[in-house]
C-alpha cells in the first residue's frame, strides 16, 4: 500500500473500457447529438468570435498543447471543412509544427471571454507557406511565417461546467501577477544564473510589444 501517498496506489486504477463505462455510465443524447463533422453555421460564430485557442498536437516526444491568440476570428474558416491558423511570431521552438510533421492529428479548444461554453475541433493539419494563403492571414501587412491548414473531422461545444467552476471570466478571482514567479526569475533559476532575471523582466514588456507580429 502507498500509505500517505495514495497516488502511488495502483490497485484502483481503471484500465479497461468496460470498467470506465461502468463508473461513468453512457453519455446522454445531447452529448452525442451536438457533434458535427464540419463547421456548422451555428458553430462558425464561436470560431469567429474567439481570440484564443489551445492547440494540441502529438510528436516524437509525446503530447503538447500550445496557446494561440490574436484578434477575434484569427482562426479563419476557409470553408465548412477547413480552418486556417496562422503561425505568428514566437520563440522559434516550433514544437507544434514539429509535431504536425510527425503526426498531422490536431485538436483545438476555442475560448471566448465572457462565454462559458467552449468549442472543440479535431482534425488533421498540414503546414503551408503558400503566398496567397499567408497574404490572407496577414496582420496589418505582416505575414505569418506559415499557416496550418486544418481539415476538420469533428466539432462540438463543450458545456460550461469547467469554466463556471474555474470562475474563468470572473474578475473577482483574478490574482495579481506578482503573486507568481516571474519569467525572469524562472529563467535565472533554471539557467543557474546564466540569464539575468531582473534584466529579462525589465525588458520583457517592451520586447513583446515590438515583436508581437
TrEMBL record:
<dbReference type="InterPro" id="IPR024029">
    <property type="entry name" value="Pyridox_Oxase_FMN-dep"/>
</dbReference>
<dbReference type="InterPro" id="IPR012349">
    <property type="entry name" value="Split_barrel_FMN-bd"/>
</dbReference>
<dbReference type="InterPro" id="IPR011576">
    <property type="entry name" value="Pyridox_Oxase_N"/>
</dbReference>
<protein>
    <submittedName>
        <fullName>Pyridoxamine 5'-phosphate oxidase family protein</fullName>
    </submittedName>
</protein>
<dbReference type="Pfam" id="PF01243">
    <property type="entry name" value="PNPOx_N"/>
</dbReference>
<feature type="domain" description="Pyridoxamine 5'-phosphate oxidase N-terminal">
    <location>
        <begin position="44"/>
        <end position="159"/>
    </location>
</feature>
Amino acid at each position: 500500500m502507498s500509505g500517505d501517498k495514495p497516488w502511488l496506489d495502483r490497485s484502483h486504477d481503471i484500465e479497461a473500457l468496460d470498467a470506465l463505462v461502468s463508473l461513468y455510465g453512457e453519455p446522454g443524447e445531447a452529448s452525442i447529438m451536438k457533434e458535427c463533422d464540419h463547421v456548422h453555421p451555428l458553430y462558425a460564430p464561436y470560431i469567429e468570435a474567439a481570440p484564443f485557442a489551445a492547440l494540441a498536437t502529438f510528436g516524437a516526444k509525446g503530447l503538447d498543447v500550445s496557446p494561440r491568440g490574436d484578434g477575434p476570428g484569427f482562426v479563419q474558416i476557409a470553408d465548412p471543412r477547413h480552418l486556417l491558423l496562422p503561425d505568428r511570431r514566437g520563440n522559434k521552438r516550433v514544437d507544434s509544427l514539429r509535431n504536425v510533421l510527425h503526426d498531422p492529428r490536431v485538436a483545438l479548444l476555442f475560448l471566448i471571454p465572457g462565454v462559458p461554453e467552449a468549442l472543440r475541433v479535431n482534425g488533421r493539419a498540414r503546414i503551408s507557406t503558400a503566398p496567397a494563403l499567408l497574404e490572407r492571414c496577414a496582420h496589418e501587412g505582416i505575414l505569418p511565417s506559415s499557416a496550418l491548414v486544418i481539415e476538420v473531422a469533428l466539432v462540438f461545444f463543450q458545456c460550461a461546467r469547467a469554466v463556471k467552476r474555474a470562475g474563468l471570466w470572473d474578475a473577482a478571482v483574478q490574482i495579481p501577477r506578482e503573486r507568481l514567479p516571474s519569467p525572469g526569475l524562472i529563467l535565472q533559476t533554471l539557467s543557474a544564473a546564466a540569464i539575468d532575471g531582473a534584466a529579462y523582466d525589465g525588458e520583457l514588456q517592451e520586447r513583446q510589444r515590438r515583436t508581437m507580429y
